[in-house]
C-alpha cells in the first residue's frame, strides 16, 4: 500500500546572483513498510529531498502526499502535529536534549503531544534497543551508539508510520554503525514502519530493499524502476 508520494518536486535557492537547483522535478512513491535508501554525493539533494518529504521544508514547486493528503495544504500548526504523530526522525547529530535524561528524551514527543505514554510499548522499545541500563544517564554520559539508540527510541515513541533517517550512522564507527543500521531495519520490519534513509555510503545503501540515487538534484537510478 502506497503511503507517501511526491510529484514534480523542485527546490531552488538564491545564491547571490546565481540560482542553485537542489532538486529538479522529482517524482517517487513509497510503500508502507518498505526500506528505501536515498544515496548520492554531497550536494546531490538527498537531504533536501528528505526534509521536503517529511514536511520540514517547503518545495519551490511540486506536491507531497501522505496517505493521499497534500502535505502542504496543512497550516504550520497542523503540519507540526502531523510530523510529531506520524513521522519519526533520526539525525546524524542525534539531536538529544542535553538537560534531559535518556528516558525523558524518549518520552519527549509523547509529552509534547500532551498524552500519557504507553508504558508497555515504551518498555518494549527500550528492551528491543538494549538501552535498559542507560535510561537515567544524561546524553553527555553516553557513547555515540547509545545516543543514537535513544534517538531511535524517541523517534518511535509516538508509533510513527514513517521513519526518516538522515545519515544516522555518520558519526559512528564502523561496527557501531552496522549495529544501528541493523536495529533500524529490525524495528522497521517488526513495526511495519516505512524507513527512508539518506546516506552517501553505498555499503549502507545496499542494505536497503530499494535504492534511489540522486545526482545534481535528479533521480538517476531507482532500483524499483531500473535506469531512470
From TrEMBL:
Arranged from A to Z, the UniProt key words for this protein are: ATP-binding, Nucleotide-binding, Transport
ABC transporter domain residues are: 4-228
Q: Which SMART domains match?
A: AAA
Transmembrane regions:
none
SUPFAM superfamilies annotated for this entry? Answer: P-loop containing nucleoside triphosphate hydrolases
InterPro entries, from UniProt? Answer: AAA+_ATPase (IPR003593), ABC_transporter-like_ATP-bd (IPR003439), ABC_transporter-like_CS (IPR017871), ABC_transpr_LolD-like (IPR015854), MacB-like_ATP-bd (IPR017911), P-loop_NTPase (IPR027417)
PROSITE patterns assigned: ABC_TRANSPORTER_1, ABC_TRANSPORTER_2
Task: Write out the GO cellular component annotations.
Answer: membrane protein complex; plasma membrane
Q: Which Pfam families match?
A: ABC_tran (PF00005)
Domain of life of the organism in this record? Answer: Bacteria
Q: Span of the secretion signal? A: none
> What molecular function terms (GO) are annotated for this protein?
ATP binding; ATP hydrolysis activity; transmembrane transporter activity
According to UniProt, the name of this protein is ABC transporter domain-containing protein
Question: What organism does the record attribute this protein to?
Answer: Syntrophaceticus schinkii
Amino acid at each position: 500500500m502506497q503511503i507517501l508520494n511526491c510529484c514534480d518536486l523542485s527546490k531552488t535557492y538564491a545564491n547571490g546572483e546565481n540560482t542553485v537547483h537542489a532538486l529538479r522535478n522529482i517524482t517517487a512513491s513509497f510503500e508502507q513498510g518498505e526500506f528505501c535508501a536515498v544515496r548520492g554525493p554531497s550536494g546531490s539533494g538527498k537531504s533536501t529531498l528528505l526534509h521536503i518529504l517529511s514536511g520540514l521544508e517547503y518545495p519551490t514547486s511540486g506536491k507531497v502526499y501522505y496517505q493521499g493528503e497534500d502535505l502542504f495544504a496543512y497550516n504550520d500548526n497542523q503540519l507540526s502535529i502531523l510530523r510529531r504523530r506520524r513521522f519519526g526522525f533520526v539525525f546524524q547529530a542525534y539531536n538529544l536534549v542535553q538537560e534531559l535524561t535518556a528516558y525523558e528524551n524518549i518520552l519527549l514527543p509523547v509529552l509534547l503531544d500532551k498524552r500519557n505514554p504507553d508504558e508497555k510499548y515504551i518498555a518494549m522499545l527500550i528492551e528491543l534497543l538494549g538501552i535498559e541500563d542507560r535510561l537515567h544517564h544524561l546524553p553527555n554520559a553516553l557513547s555515540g551508539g547509545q545516543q543514537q539508540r535513544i534517538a531511535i527510541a524517541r523517534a518511535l515513541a509516538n508509533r510513527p508510520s514513517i521513519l526518516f533517517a538522515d545519515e544516522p550512522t555518520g558519526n559512528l564507527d564502523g561496527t557501531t554503525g552496522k549495529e544501528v543500521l541493523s536495529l533500524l531495519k529490525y524495528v522497521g520490519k517488526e513495526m511495519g514502519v516505512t524507513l527512508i534513509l539518506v546516506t552517501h555510503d553505498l555499503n549502507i545503501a545496499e542494505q536497503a530493499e530499494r535504492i534511489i540515487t540522486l545526482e545534481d538534484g535528479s533521480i538517476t537510478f531507482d532500483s524499483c524502476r531500473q535506469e531512470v
